[in-house]
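A favour, since you know our C-alpha cells better than I do. What I am after is a single protein written out in full by you. Could you add the entry underneath, on a fresh line?


***
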Amino acid sequence: MIDVHVNGRPLQTPLGHLFQVPTLALAQAITEEWGKDLSPTFQKKTLTSLTATALDKVSASRKAFITYALHAIEKDVVLFWAEKPASLVALQEEKWAPLIKEANDFLNLSLSPTVSFKIAPLSSAEEKRIEVFLRTLSDLTLAGFCHLLTLTSSFCLSYLILKGHLSAEKAWNLAYLQEHTQRNLWGEDEETLLHEKGAYEELLETIRFLQLIK
C-alpha cells in the first residue's frame, strides 16, 4: 500500500486513518486534487472522498454498503418505463431493453421493465448471486460502485460501467433518457443543466477512481 502525502504530511481521513492506496497512480491523483484545492472539504474532491469513504466507512460496514447496492435494484431507473409519449416509449425499447438484457445475461437475472411503481422481486437465488458479486469487490471498488449507483440511479448501468461495457457519456445519457426526452419537448432549465453538469463531472471522476485503483 502507498501512503498519500499532501504538503509533505501524511493525509488522514476524517476518522484519522492514514490514506493508504493500492496504486501509485491513485496516490498521485489524490495529491494533484489537493494541489488544485487546498480547502479541507473532502466532498469537493471526488478521489479523496471516495478513498476516505472506503477507509472510514466501507471497511467498518461492508454489510450496509452491500445491502444498499442490493436495494438499489428495486429503484433502478431503467426498469421503470413511461407509457407515453410514443417517442419515449420507442427510446426505452431501443436504448434500455438491450442493457437490461446484458445485465441479466452477465448476472443470470430475470430483471424486466415495469410501468407500475414496483418491479417483480428477485428470487432468493438471484439475490444470492448479486450478493456474491458484491462481496468480491474490494472496499475501494465497493465505495466507487455505490457512488455510481447514487449518480446514475441504476444498478444495471453501474454494473456495466464497472465491467467496462459502458462509457461515461453513454451511461449518463441512458440514466437521463426520460429527463432529456422531456427537455426536448418542454425546453431547458438553466439550474437543472448546471446541476446535471456537476453530477456528470463527478461521474467522470468516479469512473476514473475505479480505473486508478486497478
